Structure to design on (107 residues):
């Protein structure tokens, strides 16, 4: 069963994506708390979530059409260099091909 949120590939080889969470960070200063409160409030980031979801849907649909099917996806921390962390950036890796049968799960 696919995860309920994030990027994932289903057994039919299609890439899907759903918003998992959002947040904001504001550089320190006199207005930090005011700006952060606005961004995280009802008139801030939340107002663009539907637009971001639409962009994610159209991007995954285009990837499926042009490059699919996929057998998996994962995230690499950093900027596609020898080292890095998720505070720098994240690279999305898509593995082409049909997913294999997961087979039995032994406990």
């Amino acid at each position: 069963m696919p995860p309920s949120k994030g990027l994932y590939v289903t057994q039919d080889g299609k890439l899907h994506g759903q918003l998992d969470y959002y947040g904001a960070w504001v550089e320190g200063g006199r207005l930090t708390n005011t700006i952060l409160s606005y961004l995280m409030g009802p008139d801030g980031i939340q107002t663009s979530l539907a637009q971001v979801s639409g962009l994610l849907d159209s991007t995954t649909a285009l990837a499926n059409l042009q490059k699919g099917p996929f057998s998996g996806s994962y995230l690499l921390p950093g900027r596609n260099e020898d080292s890095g962390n998720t505070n720098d950036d994240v690279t999305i890796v898509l593995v082409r091909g049909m997913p294999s049968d997961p087979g039995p799960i032994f406990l």
Summary: The chain has two helices and four strands. The longest helix spans residues 49-67. The chain has one domain: 6-96. Residues 6-96 form one domain.
